[in-house]
Structure formats: structure tokens, C-alpha cells
From TrEMBL:
Region feature (Disordered): 1-44
Gene (UniProt): ssuh2.1
PANTHER family documented for this protein: PROTEIN SSUH2 HOMOLOG
Leader peptide range in chain numbering: none
Name this polypeptide is given: Protein SSUH2 homolog
GO MF term list: heat shock protein binding; unfolded protein binding
Native species: Dicentrarchus labrax (European seabass)
Length: 378
């Protein structure tokens, strides 16, 4: 048994080697209205909605905003907010907050403009599943409806959702491209032999006895393969083949076009940067009072609002959203909101020194760059 290669035997020629895990280009049929599925780069083509599906903006249309008043906080509210803030910081003493003297509470006007555009996008791609005799809705039952003619129930407005549906009449059955319809593929690990040469004795069945280098008879039977020189292939359990990982042994696959519908609320926020001492990022954590909400299929730039920067940004963002979404998606609804975000700059003295802090948001959060430490008032 010197020639272990002989013993390892040859593979079953009937069982094919593994084919590609994805259907090769040209493998699948064409489905009317669903082009670009030939494999390769354009795997999931996006279908822009037909022009009639998207609203067309009216020219020179504007939206008028009512007047607003700037909210203020009282000294009690400012002090309570600071106390709550100080108590959440273990390094800070609440004593200054309790005993400080307010000099001025200066309310600042902060508007947050928000534009939301709720869109629907449709893309498609080939999918397959193992075929077990399930019904096949193929082209013989009719022409597949175009991507935008497949009816779907709209989710709740402004909620993000993805839905996948099977395109009607796009299904057909083909032999599995990986196993060529055998349901099994040749084991790669052992090349279909079911056995692998023992790596410990390199197939000889013997190993040199440790410490017996100088003696010619210093050989011992390989304990890993019990002297056989080969071992059963772990990968295929000695069968030489494995169940096909694509069809799971079913031999055939059911192919169909899957439509992926994505609903997304695209949000753009803007707050004019006018408070050099207050980090604008802080505004993201709080809510304001949405005193103006304008909701329609399409909204129009704000006009006549006292803050011209807000008017300008509304025109800019509305234009940007329209340009970036109407060519790829269907615009289902738009909403523009102006929020008054409370912001008060509170100036106070403590122990003869001047300090200040900010109270912001409807939540009355506090931001302070400097706070009198308890240690300084020994
Ligand atoms: Zn061995
Ligand atoms: Zn194997
Ligand atoms: Zn297969």
C-alpha cells in the first residue's frame, strides 16, 4: 500500500463540479417592462415614476406665515432648570444655583425650519427560491404590470418602510445553475474522492519514532490515520459530494422578479447660526413649538416671514428636494415646519463674580460653559 493515490480512488463523474452561485448572464428570460436584469452591473435597476405620477409645482407660488411671539422663561423656571442640570453633574454643587442673583434673562429668537419630503422609490431584481412544485405565476398568465402599476398599500405618512413584492407573471422554473440539476455538487475539499491524504504522515501510514533518528527501523504506524495513509473527508463526510447549497437538493429553482418599494421621509433641518456662545448642535436634542405647519402634495417657499434667512432657506431646500427626488422617486407628500425653539441667556452674579448660562428647548435644558465651583466659596 505504498501508492496511496491509487487507494484514494477517482470521483463519481456524474456529479458535477460547483457552478456559479448566481445565475450567469443570459441565464434568465426577459420579462416585459423589466429590463436591465441580464446580470452584471445593473443588478437592481431603479424605475423613475412616469411623469404623471409626480406632482408639478406651480410657478411663483408662495406661502405666507403668521406672526409669532418670542417666548421667555421666568427666573423661577431658569433657576429650576439650572438646579436640575447641576444635580445631574456630580462635580457641581447646587449651592450656587440656589443662591445666585439673576441680573438679566435675555430671550433669544431661534427659528428652526424643517422640510420633509415623503417619497416612494421602486427598484427590482431577480430572486430565486428552491422549487418544490409550488405554483408558478409565469408569463403564460399575462404580461407583467409595469413597476409603477403594481398596487400597494401606503404606510402611515412620513414613516420609513421597505416592502418587497413578487412581480405578477414573472416567475419560471429552471434547472439549478449551481448543480446543473443534480441536487448535489462534487466536494471541493476532496475533489469528490471522499478521502483525503493524511496530513500527519503525508500518506505513508508511518511516522518516524521520536528520538530514534539514528536507527533505520525507527518507524511507527501513524496514529492519526491508523496506518491507512488517508482519512475520511470531514467536509463531505466521505460521500465525495454535498447537497447543493443553492437549490438544497431540489434540482430546480423558481426565478421571479422582486420589486423593492422604499418609502422614506427625507428631512432637512436648518437653524440660523446667530448665537456664537451657544453650540447649535445642542438644538438637535430638544423640541420647539411648531407654530407653523404647512402640509401639501408640494409646499411652496415661505414669503413675508420676518426672518428673511428662513424664507431663503425654505426656497433653497424646496428646490433641492424637488430636484433630487422627483427624477428618481415619487413625491407623496411634503411638509414644512417653523419651530420656535426657546433659548434664554441667563446672566447672574455669584460671590461677586459674573456668570451666565443658557436655557433651551421646550424641555428647559441647560448649557453652561462656566459654573461657579463649590470649592471657591469656602
Ligand atoms: Zn497518517
Ligand atoms: Zn469531501
Ligand atoms: Zn442545485
Amino acid at each position: 500500500m505504498d501508492n496511496t493515490e491509487d487507494f484514494l480512488g477517482s470521483c463519481d463523474p456524474n456529479i458535477p463540479e460547483e457552478g456559479p452561485s448566481a445565475p450567469p448572464p443570459g441565464w434568465l428570460d426577459d420579462i416585459h417592462g423589466y429590463v436591465g436584469h441580464k446580470g452584471g452591473e445593473d443588478e437592481n435597476p431603479l424605475y423613475p415614476p412616469p411623469p404623471a405620477y409626480n406632482p408639478q409645482p406651480e410657478l411663483n407660488k408662495n406661502t405666507v406665515v403668521p406672526d409669532v411671539r418670542v417666548p421667555t422663561v421666568s427666573e423661577d423656571v431658569a433657576r429650576d432648570a439650572l438646579l436640575k442640570f447641576v444635580e445631574s453633574k456630580w462635580r457641581y454643587s447646587s449651592k450656587p444655583a440656589r443662591n445666585l442673583t439673576f441680573k438679566e434673562l435675555r430671550p433669544l429668537t431661534v427659528y428652526r425650519y424643517r422640510l420633509e419630503t415623503y417619497t416612494e422609490t421602486r427598484t427590482s431584481g431577480w430572486q430565486f427560491e428552491a422549487y418544490n412544485g409550488q405554483p408558478v405565476d409565469g408569463p403564460q398568465y399575462g404580461i407583467s404590470p409595469p413597476p409603477w402599476d403594481i398596487p400597494l398599500t401606503l404606510p402611515q405618512r412620513y414613516t420609513n418602510k421597505v416592502e418587497k413584492v413578487r412581480v405578477p407573471h414573472s416567475s419560471f422554473v429552471k434547472v439549478c445553475h449551481k448543480c446543473n440539476g443534480f441536487g448535489r455538487t462534487r466536494c471541493i475539499a476532496c475533489h469528490g474522492r471522499g478521502q483525503k491524504r493524511c496530513s500527519s504522515c503525508h500518506g505513508s501510514g508511518f511516522r518516524r519514532k521520536p528520538g530514534n533518528h539514528k536507527r533505520s527501523s525507527g518507524k511507527t504506524r501513524c496514529s492519526f490515520c491508523h496506518g491507512r495513509g488517508h482519512k475520511r473527508c470531514i467536509s463531505c463526510q466521505g460521500h465525495g459530494h454535498k447537497t447543493c447549497t443553492v437549490c438544497h437538493g431540489c434540482q430546480n429553482l423558481l426565478h421571479f422578479i422582486q420589486l423593492t418599494v422604499t418609502w422614506k421621509n427625507n428631512i432637512a433641518d436648518f437653524i440660523p447660526d446667530r448665537q456664537p456662545d451657544f453650540p447649535d448642535k445642542k438644538f438637535e436634542q430638544v423640541t420647539g413649538d411648531p407654530f407653523f405647519i404647512d402640509e401639501n402634495l408640494l409646499v411652496y417657499p415661505l414669503h413675508g416671514f420676518p426672518d428673511q434667512e428662513i424664507c431663503n432657506i425654505s426656497a433653497k431646500l424646496i428646490n433641492e428636494h424637488l430636484n433630487s427626488f422627483s427624477s428618481t422617486s415619487r413625491i407623496l407628500q411634503q411638509r414644512q415646519t417653523i419651530e420656535m425653539v426657546p433659548l434664554t441667556h441667563a446672566y447672574y452674579t455669584y460671590n461677586g463674580k459674573d456668570y451666565s448660562f443658557f436655557v433651551y428647548g421646550l424641555e428647559n435644558k441647560v448649557f453652561t460653559a462656566k459654573y461657579p465651583s463649590a470649592c471657591s466659596i469656602l
